Amino acid sequence: MTSSAKVALSDDGKRLILDLDGRSRELAAMWLRERSPDAETLDPGTGQRLIEAAELPLDLTLLHAECDGDALALRFSDGHATRFPLAAVVADDTGPSDIVPGRTLWDAELSGPPRADFAAAVADDAALLEMLDGLHRYGVALVSGVPADEHGMQALIDRIGPLRHTNWGGIADVKSVANAYDLTMTQRGLEPHTDNPYRDPIPGYIWLHCLTNAADGGDNTLVDGYRAAQVLRERDPAAFDCLTRVSPRFRYRDESTWLESEGPLIELDSQGRVSRVRFNNRTEQVDALPADELERYYAARHAFYALITSEELTVHLKLDPGQMLIMDNYRLFHGRRAFELAGGVRHLRQGYVDRDSTASRRLTLRHQLTDITTPEEVA
């Protein structure tokens, strides 16, 4: 890697031009200075910045830059000198992409979600990391061997992060009941959707544990929302753009709860990449926007819905007792077919775990079990 690396400075010294791996990159002197990976700038233990970056002089320049093995040797106009690993520059520069890095998109051709064994993931860090890596990459994991009791999944939740408690408690039943407070507690089919877009923050991961599934029907449906957004962008760019701009509200109310939030059906990150999707027909509340804007939105939503309900993108599966799905609620659309209780009981249990604890567990395990040290390297 280093043999082909070349560096040069702009005439004013405010930029470093790096040619590496067949690509040319321009790096701001200020960016390199505030991220200098030395003990004077960053705390070796926490990685947190020790200098006040906002106090660095705005006319800061690079006085010298050269390749030194696998690093850049840099000297700045404020007198600071450091060695900046080339690998860190490459890892931070993910390049152009429509989707956040580190994900594998899929459609109906997916042979099945990544699989994991419950007992192994509870007992062994390597098995847990393999499960979390698959969940991160595909947005879903299928876990088998979960104890067939009401809190059977708790031991694995405890390995990752705290259970998210809501107005429904912690782990809640998903089965048909009289006077249901939510349509999930009925026998009707459910359209592809994301859970709880009316919360702030929205729950990050859905844990769905099957205790019994003898009812006729009730198969789960899974759709990769990132793939659906990508297809919409390719086939109908105007619809894609509309769904990234209009932010409907979502509302849930009962006698003791009133929850509201808002957000676009397709959310982009700061680099224009799809980072989150939403769809929840049961709770969506679109504001009275100008009529022409509403017409565009309804047409775009119609096109998106046609995709996420298409057989082209949908994976079908029926959980067996002792199986559990873990689903990325920022990425996956999930639903189910209607079911009839004449065939038997359908009883699942559901809980939520947030994204920060899940991501933290994956990254710390990766750091402990491998030589990889930065989040970018494990994306």
What can you see in these coordinates?
With 379 residues, the chain is of the alpha+beta class. It folds into 2 domains: 2-93, 2-Layer Sandwich (NE0471 N-terminal domain-like), CATH 3.30.2020.30; 115-369, 4-Layer Sandwich (Double-stranded beta-helix), CATH 3.60.130. It is 24% helix and 29% strand. Strands 7, 8, 9, 10, 12, 21 and 24 form a 7-stranded mixed beta sheet that branches. It has a 4-stranded antiparallel beta sheet with strand order 11-22-14-20. A 3-stranded antiparallel beta sheet has the order 1-2-3. α4 (125-138) packs across α9 (355-369) and α7 crosses α8. The longest helix is centred in the C-terminal third of the chain and has 18 residues, at 291-308. It starts with 5 loop residues before the first strand and ends in a 10-residue tail after the last helix.
